[in-house]
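Give me structure tokens for this 332-residue protein.
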Amino acid sequence: MQSRPLEIACDESGFTGTNMLDPDFELITHVGLCLDHATAAEYVALIHQRFRRYSATEYKSGQLLRNRLAVEWLLGTLAGRATVHLTDKTYFTVTRLVDLLIGDPSYAAGTSLALDLRPVANTLHRTGPVVFGTAKWRDFLAAFVGMMRHKRYRGIDGPYVGHFLKSLDGLRSDRLDPILGELRDARPQLFRVLTELQDDRSPVPPPLEPLIPALFETARLWTADGSTITMLHDEQSALTPHRVARVQDLLRSVSPAPEPLLGLTMLDSRTDPRIQLADLLAGVARQLATAELRRRADPRLTALLRPYLASTSLWSDQASWHRLTGSLVSNR
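Here you go.
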């Protein structure tokens, strides 16, 4: 029987706020690390002693990645003590578009608990750029992002809403018209969702916050065996008490433990070695996964990353998923 809750230290890499289509930050990684404070401090001290070249204070992943031996050492020694959840941010944007307009825009949507509409999102994500061209497709997604990120203009008469609807009406294709027709017919739901989102405590989650489903998936991994956890997280304004409570509610519905996530505490990564280590791993994982997505990866480093990767990662590209995980088909 577990005598005390596990402490899972978390951090992310690649978070760019609501700028979901930044070509330089295609992915966001979320790490959960189970390591006590003293051991994490030893890790950080050893990294500074052996590998530090550039930073006199907090060591960052960009510095670590300049030293291959350091990356191999880190990945080789933390296996079994950490998990990495990957999110393709463009694909995430498409899933949110589908969930909010023609699905159930709940906190479960966007997680592994709600996969019914994932094939629809996959079809749009993979076929949209082919049918309409990359530029036109990204303009359409940018119109959706613009509508969702400008709170002052939420409402049925807002200019960003009008721009999105015009962009949607401009997409015509025999291959995608059944899906696009559903999206065009979903205006009443869109207006309802936009109205609900004006309340920060809405039952509809913020549509451009991939950190929330990533947090849920990380917590679910660590509580799947019935463990109870507390989470220690680098400071993030996206993780409000209301949103964390919603994640706790979801976990109660699927976990063997009656109270799987006891709470979440924000910490400064500069003062806690567990968060520092999670930050390093998140940055390294993002760079290696991005290299696979762009087909410029090092197979040995990918193999070292593989044991950390969550099968519930939000990923669409089949070839890179196979290289990252060894799985023939991404189940998400």
